[in-house]
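Dear colleagues,

As part of the handover before I leave the project, I'm documenting each prediction I ran so the next person doesn't have to rerun anything. This entry is a single chain, and its sequence is reproduced below.
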Amino acid sequence: MAHYTGRPRFEWDEDGRIMTLLNRFAFIDDAQLVWSVPAMTRVNGASIPQFAWSILGSPFVGRYRKASVVHDWYCDVRTRGWKATHRMFYEAMRTSKVSGAKARIMYAAVYYAGPRWDVAAAYNAELAETMLPEAYSSLKQMEPAEIPEAQPDLTLWHRRETDPVAFEAMCDDFAKKCATVTDVEAMIEEQLGATE
């Protein structure tokens, strides 16, 4: 069963836009995967598209605050895939007792317009740029000393162009016609365009 460990405590920065987590806490999903967030993490809710804030409220208010902090952290560090991270957000919201309808709408917002990244592709592309041409034609394996010391940036992320008006018009459908996150994904693909 999904649950949180620890009770997060926060402190607002002077600008009122950034919140600092004062202690470590974690979300453990249904598959028992631990989504841990370290103390002193600074979050601003940016992983949730701002147009969704006007529909459902700020990510720092209400029951989905803990889920939004975990989601922000994993969207920043990008150590897990974007789809898994966005699905974790949905599961964490439900664990926080956010209604199914509201959680599906918030999931739709991050699936449609939230951050995306491809860890492996970006890493491999940058690694390829550091390789000497003869490495491609040689069967010889690179020696550890030949591996570049500077590790390439492992992430590439983007936010797709969005149509907030079209999204808002669909919110009732996300809430009433979609029973699962897979249903939400299919509706977005069909009505708002492919997201891959």
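The first strand starts at residue 3 and ends at 5. The two ends are 31 Å apart (CA to CA).

All the best with the project,
I.
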